[in-house]
Specification:
Low-confidence stretches: 24-29, 64-69, 210-214
Largest sheet: 9 strands, mixed
Helix content: 25-40%
Shape: globular
Number of domains: 2
Length: about 400
């Protein structure tokens, strides 16, 4: 019995020693943080001598220190022409002294030139990359992707990575762009009732649109990336508007105010500002802040085999252009202003919807999702071919706005 106990004890000791040996021994393939170089931005252009031109912006493990106060942390930008994204990364790996790691990549930028040709293969390749996070933003640059990255110089941040992370969130307080990620694009690319979109960006200033003398006080919002009328600036890159896709090819773009309409229709709108004619004073305008009130209701049905979509929008509003005459806004004036806001939004959103259906033929607002329930099976839905029938859709838009008069100054 003693021999058996001694034998069991010896086996137990051997097992413990074995576990300790393996747990304390280093793994041959393990990598230290010092062995890696971290990509924070990936740019993809059409190549001149090969299929693609890949631009990668690197940062370093100690870049979070940001140097002295107000000094932007340094980055390195490398570009290589290649046949595919994976081959490009491999070529850059053979050039750099450290292995490229994509787990901290914040943005993926495609040039408009490449996007119009189709980026489906690249999107699937990126989605299949274990390192790349699905919440990386997808940006379509009107300039080259390389120019966008080179001219992205943060003014209020020391870290370029933090700058990339924060810029898309202006959706929450402006409504002129949307926080669109790799997973968003990939999922919409693989559905049959909505088309993909991407953030519209630009790496260099463009010419402003000439005025059409239309007396529309919101003309200043009919701009896209590269046209923001800022005269003093330290960087040329900017994001404003949305790139519209049909399947994997870019077919158009939304201006700042059209992007706001898109957010309202897709229930991603939080707040934004429009400018209207002042009903109490001739040749005067009034700024109105819009806020989400209730989710937009979209009901679509087939009438004589043509889609008919009825859209109901409910918003809250607050007057921003208050002055000594604001007390003149009584109950009747508030109702008149609400009617003015409703009419403006109804007409503008209706024009926007017909632009997406007739000009782009791309259902980026998910109108088809409300029609999907009218079909008994997915085979029936697929045979209906919504992607090519969206252009036949008729729309009816109803907007109800509640102006919060309690914010007005009183005499």
């Amino acid at each position: 019995m003693k021999k058996l106990r001694k034998f069991v004890l010896n086996i137990f000791i051997i097992l413990i020693i074995s576990v300790l040996i393996f747990s304390l021994s280093g793994c041959y393939s393990a990598q230290s943080i010092d062995d890696l170089t971290y990509a924070i931005a990936l740019g993809i252009d059409k190549g001149e001598h090969n299929n693609l031109a890949i631009t990668v912006q690197f940062t370093f493990p100690n870049a979070s220190e940001g140097g002295s106060s107000g000094e932007t942390a340094p980055t390195i930008i490398n570009t290589v022409e290649c046949s595919s994204i994976n081959s490009g990364i491999s070529l850059l790996n053979s050039y750099t002294s450290k292995e490229i790691n994509l787990s901290h990549c914040k943005i993926i930028v495609f040039s408009e030139e490449l996007a119009t040709l189709g980026i489906g293969e690249e999107i699937f390749t990126l989605s299949n990359q274990v390192e790349i996070r699905p919440d990386s933003n997808i940006i379509i640059s009107k300039s080259s992707a390389k120019e966008y990255i080179e001219n992205s110089k943060p003014e209020l941040e020391n870290l370029v990575a933090k700058y990339y992370e924060l810029t898309s969130y202006s959706q929450e307080y402006v409504g002129f762009t949307e926080n669109i990620t790799l997973s968003d694009f990939f999922n919409k690319l693989n559905t049959t009732y909505v088309e993909p979109i991407a953030i519209l960006g630009n790496g260099k200033k463009l010419e402003l649109l000439t005025s059409n003398n239309s007396n529309d006080s919101n003309d200043e919002l009919n701009i896209v990336a590269g046209q923001i009328p800022i005269t003093e600036y330290n960087r040329e890159s900017e994001n404003i508007g949305i790139a519209v896709f049909k399947e994997d090819s870019m077919v158009g773009e939304l201006t700042a105010i059209e992007t706001m309409f898109h957010l309202i229709l897709t229930n991603n709108f939080e707040s934004g500002i429009i400018t209207l004619s002042n009903p109490l004073k001739e040749n005067s305008t009034i700024d109105v802040a819009l806020y989400s009130h209730k989710n937009t209701s979209i009901k679509t049905e087939l009438i004589n085999n043509s889609p008919f979509s009825s859209i109901d929008i409910k918003l809250n509003a607050r007057l921003l252009s208050v002055n000594q005459n604001s007390g003149d806004f009584g109950t009747e004036e508030i109702k008149e202003l609400e009617s003015l806001i409703n009419s403006f939004l109804q007409e503008s959103i209706l024009n926007y919807l017909y632009k997406t259906s007739k000009e782009f033929e791309s259902d980026i607002d998910g109108i088809g999702k409300s029609l999907l329930t009218k079909f008994k099976t997915m085979d029936e839905w697929n045979n209906y071919d919504w992607s090519n029938n969206y252009k036949n859709t008729f729309f009816k838009v109803n907007v109800t706005t509640n102006v919060k008069s309690s914010f007005l100054l009183s005499s």
